[in-house]
Write a structure and sequence with these properties.
Elements (H helix, E strand, L loop, with lengths): L1 H5 L3 H20 L8 H20 L14
Helix pairs in contact: 2-3
Length: about 70
């Protein structure tokens, strides 16, 4: 799944991440156990990795910093 997510543009990734986050939140609010949402959590981790990689290598993206630069 991660390789497929890397193919998407940054805005699409952000939108999909927001939707997955909302799904997880709703599942937990309706009483799903932490174990029941394990696959959703794993998908969110994949989204976070893909987003980090996109923002890290895309100049001008919000949150983009070069390694070794001061914040």
């Amino acid at each position: 799944m991660l390789s497929e997510l890397r193919q998407l543009d940054l805005e699409t990734l952000k939108q999909m991440f927001a939707l997955e986050t909302d799904k997880l939140r709703q599942s937990l609010l309706t009483g799903a156990s932490w174990e029941d949402v394990q696959q959703q959590r794993y998908r969110l981790i994949d989204f976070e990795v893909a987003l980090y990689q996109k923002m890290r290598y895309q100049p001008g993206a919000v949150g983009h910093r070069r390694l070794g630069s001061q914040a």
